[in-house]
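Open question from group meeting: does this chain pack into something compact, or does most of it stay loose? Before anyone orders reagents, we agreed to write out a predicted structure and look at it together. Recording both the input and the output here so the notebook holds the full record.
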Amino acid sequence: DPCKPWSFQYAEEEAQRIPAGTSVVLVANCRDMYDKWGVRQEQMKQFVEKQGRDYYYIECSALNGFGLTELYAFLNIPFLKLKEQALVERLRLIQQDLTKAQEAFALEQQSQSYEKFLEYLDTIRREREAEKAAAALEASSRTRRSASLPAAKKETWSAW
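Structure tokens returned:
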């Protein structure tokens, strides 16, 4: 509120705490009461220019709506900057993934051999056959043990 000089002093003090790269707008409200302003337009504009970063100055009036569309348009800036940062980071990660994929492809292309591939398939086939044989042997061993247990128990009981 430029009608109250202390509000501008507060804005000046708080400006020092705002992180660099943050978009800021100094809104001079009560434009309809310009003749009662305790802080002059030139002083506020000089302050904004002195900041030398994403600082903007607008005037508005809540009484008649002057400058509110400009303020609304400004509010898109910080959100779009955040969106841009997120997209840039995502693009960086995609570029890393692309580089890794290209390197992996180049490595595979250098070591590609049909004979080695056939050997690899044969090795996998033999390992699977060995696993199946071991599983079948284990299953038949369990079947023999469980079949022999009841017979042994019956002999024990009949001896009594």
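Observations to bring back to the group:
The beta strands are 24-28, 55-59.
The chain has a mean pLDDT of 83.
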